[in-house]
Amino acid sequence: MSPRRMRVALLNTVILNGGDAAIASAIADTLREAFGDRLDLELLDGSPAAPAYYPEFSLLRDPHKLALAREHVLFGRMGRGFNELRLMFGAFLLGKGMSPPPLLLTDDEERALRALAEADLVVSTGGTYLVEHYALRGRIFNFRLVNLLRRPLVLYTQSMGPFTKPEVRGPLAQELDQARLILLRDPASLEHLKELGVTTPHAEVLPDSVFTIADAEELERATSRVVPDVGARVLVSVRKWTKFQGREPEEGMREYTESVRAMIRELVDTRAAHVTLLSTCQGIPEYWTDDSEVAMDVWAGLEPRYQERCEVDRAHHTLAELKAHYARADLVIATRMHAAIIALCAGTPVLPIEYEFKTRELFKALGLERWVLDISTVTPAGAVERLGQVLEEVEGARAALMAGVEEMRAGAARGAELTREAVERG
Q: Counting beta carbons within 10 angstroms of the beta carbon of residue 113, is it exposed (0 to 12), middle (13 to 18) or buried (19 or more)?
């Protein structure tokens, strides 16, 4: 008799975001490592456009997005709370082994709930979505559905918190307390989880799941690479940001983009560098933001002689394509954290620009916190100075950096074992 299929639902994915797509792909590979070829994986994603870009995944709609999408016939948008109650009642019935009555759920809603109800394991994807400057209602709602369905829940490697709002703290703690396993990307997130009052003993800090795409032999070869004095190839990831600390959004973006231009000018002047602006969130019109729009603004603000040495890649790229691009670079300046991780996995050193604490925590773990620029305080002069520091130190730091990435890869791979143990705990 062949072994029973292992059904896993991957919840809360946003794969039109290239970094999130990399996370989903890495988690899928980790789950295959944990459960072998008998794995059946379904993703529950927020966008109806996702299947067109990622046909390799089996995709259903995110339950809370479905609740938001359907306006009540009598109460309009105010009826979304009613829709949430409908889905929760449907989940309660399925959790008790009963079928929801006709007309309670739409076909898409019932498909999403049944995918969760029939899963042997529900994994909430990794990333940074449990922080208070994003809307948390939908995430808490999805966790509540999983718990009403009585399915085992694992939260994959993520950064979370701090949590200060009473309307977030109580409901989130109640749902997370029932999780089988919670994996965090950094010690700060583990402290935020403890401060929230979550008492689960099964919480561990592991490197981001995307580090599993690194290859030990490629990292070893990368230790002998150098950033050339002339003709360096540099890739730059930028993004739109509004939540600056101590700066208004317009001022913050102005200082940030001018700081990126200052580094491009310095690289062209001192290294005759060729610079390509390429990020992880671009080339998908259905997604809410496109990093290449900021990249075009950066490029447009350069003088013609610098524009001749700088180009903007506006296309959508798969994870494999992004890794190949970053592998050909001598240096990456990365605002998106997963641009930084993909570059590191490709063996390319990174000057990181931090917009959330996750980036600083990552480079602290690699022993290179001193390389991090803060998007809220960066200035053109400070950026050029930090660039000079990184270029001066990079060759001496390269071997230790690649060894650190290899440690991250091995640590991230432990997620397979921990997930398998979480299922076996029953």
A: buried
- 159 token code pair: 């950064």
Q: Please indicate, yes or no, whether residues 332 and 384 belong to a single structural domain of this protein.
A: yes
Residue-wise DSSP of 226-246: ---SSS-EEEEE-------SS
Residues 6+ apart with CB under 8 A from 348: 222, 326, 327, 329, 330, 331, 332
- Spatial contact of 232 and 348, defined as CB atoms under 8 Å apart: no
Residue 104 burial (CB count, 10 A): 14
- 410: CB partners within 8 A, 6+ apart: none
Could you tell me the CATH number of the domain that includes residue 63? 3.40.50
Overall pTM surpassing 0.85 (yes/no) = yes
Contact 136, 166 (CB under 8 A): no
CATH assignment at residue 318:
3.40.50.2000
Q: Which helix or strand (DSSP H or E) is residue 80 part of?
A: helix 80-95
What is the SS3 assignment for 331? Answer: strand
> 42-68, pLDDT tens digit by residue?
999 989 999 999 999 999 999 999 998
**Residue 145 lies in domain:** 6-205
